[in-house]
């Protein structure tokens, strides 16, 4: 009986289809193909990730899962490896460590065949190809794995048009190439997202390059929502809620006097940079005695926690909504409210263990730009920052149309 790996934050419920022993035996006995790869390597992360990336790209367009069989030799025989909990965790971590972008949808299972253990990674085709591993696009060409050339990359980009389900990957017909800050894409984003040798060999025009990273729709000849948000000269022209409203109140109520008001808007990189510079200036510090002769400097809020919650709001908000992210600073607390409730498999009961991404292209961009360290851990890290600083745990309110986090002041 196959065993599905337990950590819910690493595996999407949508893709859990327990592989039967009969089907697994058949896959093992087949020659390697564009849907099956076998290996006896138990610690070759690059090989695993390249295979996962290739299956996610589904270049032959099977629209069926691909399988990485670990512990199976070229002849289809179990090699006798030990499938430990650590091996399963390492395989599951390939989904969330941010090296494969956009995030792949996969399951990790443990099987027993002929009294020998096998690990199976089932990978679903991506809705938003092309998928990259460390800036390179891997595909399956029959039984072998290869790096996609420019023609193959274009095919993957064009295939996305009929598959894209998320708002950030959809075309914005009014946002044309001249409405984008192309230098920002070329000098800042592309250098972080694409491997240097791929850039060096690049002969494509700018629209094809943008399309390959899901920022432009070649069929509609316009930017996607993510492209407008990341590189638009004026994103509010197309995404009227794409801003962060900061209000600092003198008291504890929204009706109290406003001491400071700011509106952060513009291309996303500018907004994130401005937030990074702004947050530390708002934090107050004071000395606190720890003993008769010693004292420490304490902060009313740890800026690292506020940053995590704000990045979370930017990544997960609904950009179809016209309301901004609301960042309200009160005398005794901070409230961050973003439009759009919990998404996909995430529920009030499993939050924050379960993650689902409303905006996978924007999430990828924030990882590329260094504003996300590892997927699925931001809320946990923020809670740790609050605990270390002495603040109470953040509180969450889940509504159908918005998500609210409240951070209480230290003492």
Structural overview:
With 411 residues, this protein is α+β, with helices and mostly antiparallel strands. The chain has 12 helices and 19 strands. It has helices at 21-29, 45-57, 85-93, 150-163, 182-193, 196-200, 206-212, 225-231, 268-282, 303-316, 360-368, 378-389, and strands at residues 3-4, 36-39, 66-70, 100-101, 105-113, 116-124, 132-133, 136-141, 144-147, 216-217, 222-223, 244-249, 258-264, 285-289, 295-299, 325-329, 333-339, 395-398, 402-408. The strands form 5 sheets. It has a 6-stranded mixed β-sheet with strand order 13-12-16-17-19-18, with helices on one face. The chain has a 5-stranded mixed β-sheet with strand order 1-5-6-3-2, with helices on both faces. A hairpin with a 2-residue loop joins strand 5 (105-113) and strand 6 (116-124). Helix 9 (268-282) runs antiparallel to helix 10 and helix 10 (303-316) runs antiparallel to helix 12 (378-389). The longest helix has 15 residues, at 268-282. The chain is globular. 41% of the residues are buried.
């Amino acid at each position: 009986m196959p065993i599905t790996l337990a950590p819910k934050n690493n595996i999407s419920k949508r893709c859990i289809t327990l592989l039967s022993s009969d089907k697994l035996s058949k896959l093992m006995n087949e020659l390697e193909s564009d849907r099956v790869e076998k290996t006896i390597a138990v610690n070759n992360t690059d090989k695993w990730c390249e295979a996962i990336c290739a299956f996610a790209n589904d270049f032959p367009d099977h629209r069926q899962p691909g399988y990485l069989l670990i512990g199976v030799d070229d002849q289809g025989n179990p090699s006798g490896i030990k499938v430990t909990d650590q091996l399963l965790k390492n395989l599951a971590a390939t989904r969330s460590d941010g090296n494969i972008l956009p995030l792949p949808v996969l399951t990790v299972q443990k099987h027993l065949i002929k009294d020998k253990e096998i690990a199976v990674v089932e990978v679903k085709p991506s809705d938003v190809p092309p998928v990259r591993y460390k800036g390179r696009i891997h595909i399956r060409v029959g039984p072998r794995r290869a790096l996609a050339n420019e023609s193959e990359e274009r095919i993957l980009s064009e295939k996305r048009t009929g598959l894209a389900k998320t708002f950030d990957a959809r075309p914005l017909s009014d946002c044309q190439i001249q409405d984008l800050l192309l230098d920002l894409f070329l000098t800042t984003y592309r250098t972080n997202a694409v491997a240097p040798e791929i850039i060096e060999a690049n002969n494509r025009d700018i629209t094809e390059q943008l399309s390959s990273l899901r920022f432009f729709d070649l069929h509609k000849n316009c930017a996607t929502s993510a492209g407008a948000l990341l590189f638009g000269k004026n994103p509010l022209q197309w995404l009227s809620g794409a801003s962060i409203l900061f209000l600092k109140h003198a008291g504890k109520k929204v009706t109290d006097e406003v001491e400071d008001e700011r509106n952060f808007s513009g291309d996303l990189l500018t907004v994130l940079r401005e937030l990074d510079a702004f947050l530390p200036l708002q934090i107050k510090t004071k000395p606190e005695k720890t003993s008769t002769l010693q004292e420490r400097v304490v902060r009313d809020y740890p800026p690292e926690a506020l940053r995590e919650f704000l990045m979370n709001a930017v990544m997960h908000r609904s950009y179809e909504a016209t309301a901004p992210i609301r960042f309200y600073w009160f005398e005794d607390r901070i409230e961050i409210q973003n439009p759009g409730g919990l998404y996909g498999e995430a529920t009030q009961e499993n939050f924050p263990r379960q993650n689902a991404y409303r905006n996978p292209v924007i999430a990828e961009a924030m990882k590329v730009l260094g504003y996300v360290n590892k997927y699925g851990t931001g809320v946990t890290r923020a809670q740790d920052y609050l605990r270390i600083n002495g603040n109470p745990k953040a509180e969450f309110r889940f509504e159908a149309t918005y998500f609210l986090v409240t951070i209480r002041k230290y003492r």
